[in-house]
What does this fold into?
Amino acid sequence: MSLLNFRKPKATPPTTGLGGFLRGYSIEVMPRTAAKVEDFRALLPEGTRVYIAHIDGTPIEDMVATARRIAGEGFDVMPHFPSRIIADRATLADWIARYQGEAGITQGLILAGGVSEPKGDFHSSMQLLETGLFDKAGFTRLHVAGHPEGNRDIDADGGEAEVMAAARWKQDFSERSDARMAMVTQFAFEAEPILDWASRLRANGVDLPIHIGLAGPAKLQTMIKFAIACGVGPSLRVLQKRALDVSKLLLPYEPTELTAELAARKAADPGFPIEQAHLFPLGGIKTCAEWAATHGGEATRPARRAI
It folds into this structure.
């Protein structure tokens, strides 16, 4: 289909004052969802950072091919490097070399991954960073995971002692790495836990820029399913309360109210470490991109050159 017949919908003026907060947003896709999009240029602002989630069982060949295709369309591609599905140092080096050599990628999201038991030598993002392979390869950006509502895989008691210690380690690593770093979070549904967590990070000496995860518009049942699977914490009550309201039960969830609260805090305190929004398109990439465009989402980064 020609791009003449498949154009990105024009953004309408933001109706909720969210344009500043959503401007420069990033979005997450998987190879199988990306394959359903004929041309990302029809949906996303030029230069948008597109994360590619690496789900256990996805061949590295599919990941690299997706990265090459999306980078070739002019987007800033950041693949996941999940430590618990990487067999060993040699495998990690191979992945880095493939992304660089075949797709021109020099950035990645370094995280533990969504499996409970490591399948190889690594169990944490810190171990991957400690290999030095990313710095040796000249990666210019290394993003790491943040957990506004904790992570029971790390703190089984429901606290945050270990995740906060890991955050301090990542802060220290950022000061000895040449790469630019930021912390990307899981999505949540309430502003207060996110804002309190960001304040605690700052109080603990962690000032990495925060890219807040937001769940894009989706059917309520879909949203609840993903929230439970992804281990969303107490803010899940927002969805549970909504499910009890018959007038809202059949309406899709949109993160507009949450985003407005975060935007207001950012506007009141420009130095607050929340830098931008990261969107999880749980209801589909097109639906998510259209919601962002409607509320003022634009990219501020220059597009990458086609590969």
Observations:
- The radius of gyration is 19 Å.
